[in-house]
Fold this protein.
Amino acid sequence: MRVRSFDEYWVRGKQEINKVCERLLGLRCFELSDQQFLKRLQAGKATNSVELAAVYIRERIAATKTPLFASWGVHQGIRDVMSSRFSGVAREIIERADRCCAYQFDLLGHKDLWFGSPVDWHLEPLSRVRAPLHHWTRVPYLDHHVVGDKKIIWELNRHQFIVTLGQAYRLTSDERYAETFVKLISSWMDANLPKRGINWVSSLELAFRIISWLWALHLFVESTALTTPFVVRMLKYLVAQGHHVETYLSYYFSPNTHLTGEALGLFYLGSTLPELCDAKRWRAVGLKILLQQIQVQVKEDGVHFEQASYYHRYTTDFYLHFYIMARAQGVSLPDLVEQKLKLLLDHLMWIGRPDGSSPYIGDDDGGVLLSLGVRPRNDFRDTLALGATLFKNPRWKYLAGRDQPELLWLLGSEGVATYDDLESMSPAELAKQFSDGGYFVMRSGWSDRSSHLLIDCGPHGTMNCGHAHADALSFEYSASGVTWVVDPGTYTYTGDVQLRDYFRSTRAHNTLTVDDLSQSTSGGPFSWSTIGTSQAKAFIETSRWLCFRGQHEGYRRLTDPVTHTRTSALGKSEPDKHPLSSCLILHDRLDARKAHRYASYLHFSPACHVTSRVDGAYASTDAGQELLIVTAVSDDRGIALTTQTRKENSWVSPCYGFRVEAPVLVTTWKAIGTCTCVTMLMPHVIVETQTILRVVEEIEETTDLLHIPKVIVRMLEGALQHHLRKRRSTGSWTTVK
């Protein structure tokens, strides 16, 4: 049991006292009166009336020559560049804004969600459940029977769609977008009195909403739809939300991206509205937390400590925005901030797939800090482009690509010009180990057709490991322009208990199960009752191979303990130049004494068609790319294996809330004592007799690295010979689509 410090008791105690005072005494449970709001303004800032104060703040925003973000101050320039260079993105932004005007919202992985007219801000539209309007401490937000999937409600109430409305307004000067903004936010304030309901439960969600409101206030600042009474009321609610976030900072509740996101919200609020009496303190609190937490949450190798790629991206964006705002205000930051940011960005570069998308290792919640473009949620290249521009890094630009319209909204036309002038240079290295985070990356090159292998073999997570999956020794594999083997993602947090457990389980990842059990055992939607530890054993580069060996002990808890060791070898040749030398070889060793059932899982992209056979499978795409998979298993007693492909009850979730059926190849066998399994994945292969001999020779040459028994090599040779005979007799494989 973790020992709590005096400071933790003190902070938690103060928060509990505040909760009691709110519930029993109504402390800060009502909208601020005009007099209360005036008292929260600094003297001399037009404090004679709330109307004058609102006009003063609005005029100051409109007149600012050096705003925190370029699009907050530049008007015609943004429109001109978007229409001339990013016209397609501009059209999509306007289309999305038009749908917002019709109250149709795309949230997370859901399209065209309807919350009613007027919008019901407490409705979960899929289950049609409406969260109760109790005091926020009395809302059971994890109970899907009472609130549905809270993520959907919270995503709507982050109000990031009002930034899209603001962008459309800047692009068109159409007052309809401003009128919709005013109507929706007025409706929200009517329906969400301070401290009441699910939209006051999470301080992080309030912080995201604060950031959205501040962006919208700047984007709409010149609109005639923004009446003075509306601006006054909006400012009052910004103050109320700022106080709530400060009072209930997640110092000990969720000291991860919750805490840094809340700190960023306070830094935003304090930096953007200096007229408020609390602004200086909020900015200082946000600054202090962000500086402290970058040391705690970012490991020495640059991996975020929650061991989840999506939350790594969140953290990178948080600190990039923090860096931009601090620089704009002349705030001197320690060198450590830039150093850690560069490490965070380097990790994003390495885990990025050849097609530009990024994998979902661990949880993804489907959200973003800000949605300034129209890219898929698993495309992190806008973050890399922003980092490349700020730190003049040609390698990140190479991965990010040419056109990144988000830069325009954050850094203006000057930022886009800086990015254009920056040289693009592919990294020289082909392998990278993130030893602290436990990620190991291998690639045959840096083109969009290169082979790419990402292996997970590190800590399960941090604290209660809330965003971890039971995925030790799992991997993702891309080759020949196709992402073949993928991590299926997350799909849900609290919307469906069984699906939450499935997507976190070992069988939902590209690794092995023993006796149909997971390596780690779920203890709830964000906790674990048992945790399997993993350890890297070797990471070696030769003239022809990139090799990794790792081990986990998740099954040591069994009555007859089992240790799983996996060795992976990726050929260094490009797939289109030397297909056989670019193959991936997996060697799994299971050390046990008694009999066990084993199952090896390979989850394929939904774009793949997979046909299984006795000793492997054949995968293909509609575009004609091919992948041959051959498998051999032995415990020196000739134990047979069974291989099957299925789509039913097998899914990939490209974004939170959305899932699609996808092929999974399952190889099962039973063995007594120690056994081994070797799997080869060969892209773009047409196997002939001579090439079979070459493959066998290459495997034998790697024996010292892979420790593959000779009997397995002979079995693989037989599998390849079988493939050749099948090719000759039928001309091609028949795949089930």
Notes: Confidence is low (pLDDT under 50) at residues 731-737. The longest helix spans residues 710-730. Residues 298-428 form one domain. The CA atoms of residues 568 and 586 lie 5 Å apart.
